[in-house]
Design a protein that fits this description.
Elements (H helix, E strand, L loop, with lengths): L4 H15 L2 H18 L11 H10 L3 E6 L10 H4 L2 H6 L1 E6 L1 H4 L1
Antiparallel strand pairs: 1-2
């Protein structure tokens, strides 16, 4: 663990730069285009979709990933702690996490 926040920030930036290859950028662009096509699939005729369908599309195209939790998670944007009961956590609750594609 790094005790110096400035050093930690530099290491994080360096890590992101190493992972930002042209191949990864092409793959990310492909995923975003496929997601956009799914979202716009019913346009202009209408039909629309709900939040669950949007979530499923995001998982399908790698914008979100599913994880099973047995206790409330602390992931930003996750509401499992306020939406699920202790009994539900015993059996496992599916949470959805933003992937690096959405985190930038």
């Amino acid at each position: 663990m790094i005790d110096d926040p400035e050093e930690e920030a530099w290491q994080d930036l360096e890590s992101k730069a190493k992972n930002n290859t042209p191949e990864k950028q092409a793959t990310d662009l492909e995923r975003l285009r496929a997601f956009a096509k799914d979202v716009m699939g019913d346009w202009p005729e209408g039909g629309g979709f709900d939040g669950l369908e949007l979530q499923e599309m995001a998982v399908k195209h790698g914008l979100l990933e599913e994880t099973t939790q047995h206790k409330p998670c602390v992931e930003e944007g996750c509401f499992c702690a306020s939406m699920c009961t202790p009994e539900e956590f015993e059996g496992g609750v599916t949470c959805y996490r933003r992937t690096a594609l959405l985190k930038g």
